[in-house]
Amino acid sequence: MPKIRTQRTKRPPEGFEEIEPMLEEFAKKMRDVENEPHEGKRIVQSLWPVFRLHHQRSRYIYDLYYKRQAISKDVYDYCLKQGYADANLIAKWKKPGYEKLCCLRCIQPKDTNFGTTCICRVPRAKLEEDRVVECVHCGCRGCSSGD
Question: Which of 13, 86, 128, 136 could form a disulfide linkage to 74, CB 3.0–4.6 angstroms apart?
Fold first, then answer.
């Protein structure tokens, strides 16, 4: 009988132990949100806290690496490979005009009725003053960088 290969996880690089408590805190919050009752909410509304926590965790790692230079490239790459941060979302944050993007679904034209981006991507100055903007996908109230 052939030997069964198990996938070994790499040991975390030096410096990961500094950010590990915060990542564990995000994981704890995510478990709490997933176990929260969702009766009385719309289906998409029950997913909004998950999107917010995913954004916060990715933003935390992005800020540590690009803004404060507090972690090394090895720790950053390890976090991306292990799924602690969303590499595609971080790639968009590096582009001008997408610095405050909340999720990737807001810029996908196939998810909207008219083939455009989400309403939360419209700058507040171009909207009516008393209009409340709330994204259908993630619940953000505006993530356009042109505010």
Answer: 13
